[in-house]
Fold:
Amino acid sequence: MENRFVKGDEAEKGMAFYKNNPDNGPVHLKYFGNGHHLKDKRMTVPKRPGALWEIEGPTPGMEHYETLLREKLGEKAEAVLDLASSEPMNINIFPNLHILGNHVQVCQPVSVTETDTTWWGTAVVDPENELHGQVDAVNALRMRTQEQFPNFGEVDDLMNFEEIQVGLAAEEDEWVYMHRGLGLPERYSVDEKGVLKGPATDEVFMRETYKFYKELMQGEPRIAITREVSGG
Structure:
């Protein structure tokens, strides 16, 4: 089999695949109100079996499983390898649920300066044996690719968050800036359902989420204690 990991091959794989023309490219975000938003990169990937796998970044051990699936499944391996790839979309459900590719995160505040983040990987199930006995190999490879992005994304993201927290303790500047795209309404559109759409590099969605958070914090709590009465 041709070696996928030739020198320089990584330049167009993983997150690097989306680097070209990020401000005006096809990748977009949608804000649905109430703090919920979606980042969708699927339109950048060709709609054919194997296209998603082609841009999967290198992960330790993935060559072994790829070779195994190609030997066992032949032409069907392309579509099956796509199952092991990270789905190119992020869904953020306010206030603390995140569906990121093939894994799920829940962020839970612990204190003013601490947040606990729990990560769950997901697996493919194959009750009809459509994968011809290779579901374990698919899920082993899927776990490798799920580990690949958290190792790249979450570790440095968490370090950035910690450094931001340190920076917020400084007296020189008490603000976190998220004004990219501010005052440029031509970058956005709103459809008939009120869904706000804009470029992936814009921070309007962070601003809208914090606007909603501020409304909740300043509004009157809508809390009611009720008792369910069973019949009979």
Observations:
- Strands lie at 28-33, 36-40, 89-93, 97-100, 103-111, 114-121, 189-190, 196-199.
- The first strand starts at residue 28 and ends at 33.
- The CA atoms of residues 31 and 60 lie 36 Å apart.
- The chain has five helices and eight strands.
